Amino acid sequence: MIIKLLIGLILPFLLGFTILSWIDRNKELDLPEQTGLSFLLGISATTLLLFWAFLLPLSHRSFLVGTFIVVFSFLQLLLVDKGRRIRDFVKKCYTVKWPVGQKNIVVLLLLIGLLFKLSYVFVEAGSKPEYSWDASNFWTTSAKAFHYFDRDYPAQALQGVLNLKSHDDYPRQMALSQAWLYDYLGEANDQMGKLLFPVTLVAFLFFFYAQVKKERAGPIALFFCYFLLSAPLFVYLATVGYADFTIAVYFSVGILCFYRWIREKKLPYFWLFSIFIALTLWIKIEGKLWLLLGLILLIVYLYRDYGRSIKEAALKVGQYLSAYLIISFPWQIVIWAYRLEARGEFTSNLGHFSEMQSFIYNSLFVQGSWGLFWFAATAALLVGWHKLINRQNIYLLLTIIMFYGALLFIYLFTGDGWDSMVVSFNRVLLSLYPVMVFTLAVVLPDLNELLWWRRKK
Amino acid sequence: MKRTQLTLLVVLILSIILAGLALLPEKRLIIDKFSVVNENQILLPNSNIDANLFDVCVLELTQAVAYEPGAMLFTSQYFPQFSYNLRFDFDSGPANRLNKIYIYAPSHRAWVGIIKDILIIPSTNGPMPELQRVLFIRSNPWTKIRALSSNFTRYYDPKLGSVFALASPLFFNNSYNVLMGPWIWGIIAILLAVAIGCAIYKPDPIIFKISLLGFIILFLLLWLILDLRNNTYYLKGMRRDASQYWGKSLSDKRGIVNLSSDFISFMRFCDEAIPSDGKIINYVSEKIPGTADGALHHTQLYFNLRPRLNTTKEYYVVYGTEQSKLEIPVQGLKMFKKFHDLAYILTK
Fold this sequence. Notes:
Helix content of chain B: 25-40%
Largest sheet of chain A: none
Radius of gyration of chain A: 22 Å
Number of strands of chain B: 16
Number of helices of chain B: 7
Oligomer: heterodimer
Radius of gyration of chain B: 27 Å
Structural class of chain B: alpha+beta
């Protein structure tokens, strides 16, 4: 069982690694970035391939997609690239500098703490079958349907899944990624399938560490990784298979790649920004707003700081939208073609505006299972405002403000509004959380800077 | 003296101090007259307990309960309704041979003055255990630590379910942790205000650094305490997973997470009985005693059954309701397969 699960996890990693070798031709990504992104990108690409396969009259689709991944990766990595990328990756793995080598007790404690929290996530996710409301009702039921229908009724598989009438218009990455694992496990084992989320968390931690490491020293980057895992809600949602965790990871990767692109002007980050933001729309329906948020960020940057011709700026917008067209547009066509019930009707809940503000305050600071985080975030933004409004960090601030605006928009003008806010606010807010932790890492001063007596010596 | 010897000596002294704390005298009040109300609640009417004198409540059960969250509610001269202090007070953890559950009463802000009626919910999920007696104790530090360690604060989202984790502390009105008196938040607020003021007006960099450093140190201290508590919950969670789930079959585990192994057995029965192209109509009751409200009806039926194409005959899957009490037009429906009186399949 474990070997089958590993095959189901390694194949997407291989696909992601191969796609990254295209995007990052000049080998500009670090080892932790490459490792984390390979899995995150790979699992999404695998679900897209699987989805496209479901549009065709095939059967045993996961195994066809798996074969395609192996052949495609073999051609790209061994024949076209002549194994250079793999050799480079292995060499980087051998020469990696582990922070433990610094013999710093704090670093060692942080590493032990991180491993402990990750152990909890793995044990909690892998010990019991799926039970949480949304995950059972929507993603995992749908995943089981993909798995069984592909095997028993391949010709009617997609129609069969859509007939379930459970969140019809919802994007399908969550369901297809689970179905992919079930196919490789040979049974609809939701307990094993749930391990996808801890693995996603580990992949994200690699990426997050690399991003903070570019701003701060290694031990501080490690501290912020631990800090990221200290919010109970983030850890909890990584154990129960909620889509809110996955979209939080993808949105954050997208925004951090945007930040890296404007800091370092390296093209792979622009593509990764476009792809990951577009992927949010393949995970949850609110990805529509995050796609818009990304577009506004991009346009503001192109107008304010890009410093190139209008033609080049327009090309960037076109490239950003092309990622959306390739990734999420096919699903929109299916929604239209199958006449699925699309939600998101506009309603007005302006009468609840003040109640909403009170609820938001209560969720952030009192009952939202966030620990001390939002208190720390508010304090850091106020104290470090001068760092926050510099040329590049202002885009992090802009993201935070737009995210807040988008949240208000969701609850003020769509769907059940106020009623759904009570249930989902904390979970939707989760998408901003890693970006916020990163912002703290960027704006907070070094403790050494604050030790005023040291400078006197 | 060598370092090892010194460490051993310190450990020995600490152990003696801890053992000594356990031996300090305690004042006890024993209540063994109470009444059972509403299936899972125990009422101690008009107890007249002085909250200033007693701080720990111990429930002594005739049998052990395992992994049951529970609560203690009360009315007092200032808080005349039970709902003023609704919260989870404890998580029993694994069953222990002493069959005792400790509750640290001052965790309730309302634990002041003379306490009147006390309502105890010894288990939230499973059947109610039999209560032998209730003790109210003016505790020594050892008992206090014991009661605090079983203190259970958790986030609850009506649809998301219980989150095995901490809620955020209140800013200035923290009630659940004695380590976080309002004064800490007062100092933090002042330091933060000074740091923000300095960040904006920049009068003196040293004032800025001192205030910010003070803020960060205090913040880190509080964060560490919270994180330590959080990690304790994670440790408990892993122990719970290991003892409750490891080594069991997937079906057994489904029974545990849904709080109804009978329902899971019925699902297997349905899977075998209903043809793969049959259309399933959901008549699982929304109120099944001992399970989360609506969970079996809304999430678990289709999730636990093998998906079907829903193209041919209709099968009414009924669970939790006797056939004579069904609120659906049963004319023309006949029994297709019966699992037991409350679990069966009807068809036309």
